[in-house]
Amino acid sequence: MSPAKKKQRTYDQAKIRAAVTAQFGHVAATVGELGPEQLARPSGLGHWNVGELAAHIAWVADSLAAGLARPPGAVAELSAVEWPFATASLAGRISEAARETLSGAPLPELFERAGARMAEALEAAPGHRVMDLWIGDMTLADFLVTRTVELVVHTDDLNRAADLGIPLDRQALAACTRLLADALAVKAPGGSVEVRIPPFAVVQCVEGPRHTRGTPPNVVETDPLTWLRLATGRTGWAEALDAARVSAGGERADLSGLLPLMR
Questions:
Q1: What's the pLDDT tens digit per position in 150-209?
Q2: Residue 101: how many CB atoms within 10 A of its CB?
């Protein structure tokens, strides 16, 4: 049995639903006011500009509703903590689907339509519902946790690309941070390094002598936004160390070979 199957963090379903809705609402309230110059700026993500990145965020909500409209899957194949490792092969397919679904309408209309569809679909769906997804069947409860990653990371992308100051919902940021921290522990199981991301997460990882008492000899500590950027390849390990955004002490505390976890 894989580490991901042995022990998983649990999330309050009501709080996660509220967090997804709140973070989507924060983005929707801002992007509808953007002018042509802001929308045309590079997003920092491949060839996408800011407008295309914003439309992708609308697709995140729209695709959630579309997934709930399909017949349910039989058995969940993928857990939330395994999701980061299964996304890379679908990047092109997701980008194409987003263009087909959301092209040809102004951003405010896209967000209004996607938000309404998502709210209606979530109201009728229980958390144990198994969703039939390209990436592998998942329960709605687990899939919603992964939506916090999509929404928080891309909100941060928008803020950095266009200096927007879109708020990050605290619960969404916490869930996103914890999921990616747990994914690191799945990728590099062990107990020789303690990774601290206050105030949301502490995980132990990396094979080697397990620490049981006092201050562990190998400690990595960073803030939630820096962690998300490291885990998704927005920031490099050396860059974060040089900028004093990460502290790393101990001979095993170099995580450069394990990051990013997803792109």
A1: 999 999 999 999 999 999 999 999 999 999 999 999 999 999 999 999 999 999 999 987
A2: 15
How sure is the predictor about 1, in pLDDT bands with cuts at 50, 70 and 90? very low
Mean pLDDT, range 129-158, rounded to an integer: 97
pLDDT digits (tens, 9 = 90+) for 12-31: 999 999 999 999 999 999 99
Distance CA 38, CA 42 (A): 9
Residues with Cβ < 8 Å from 135, sequence gap 6 or more?
Answer: 78, 83, 86, 87, 90
In the chain, ranges of CATH 1.20.120.450 domains: 3-171
- CATH superfamily label, 3-171: dinb family like domain (1.20.120.450)
Q: Which of 168, 167, 222 is nearest to 197 (CA)?
A: 222
CA-based nearest residue to 152, from 138, 132, 169, 134: 169
Given a contact cutoff of 8 angstroms between Cβ atoms, the answer to whether 126 and 120 are in contact is: no
Q: What residues contact 89, with CB distance under 8 A and at least 6 apart? A: none
Report how far residue 260's alpha carbon sits from residue 235's, in angstroms, rounded to the nearest whole number.
9
Where are the CATH 3.30.1050.40 domain residues in the chain?
A: 188-249
| Residue-level pLDDT at 95 | 66
- In words, the CATH class of domain 188-249 is alpha beta
Distance CA 61, CA 139 (A): 16
Instruction: At 74, list the tokens.
Output: 């039989």
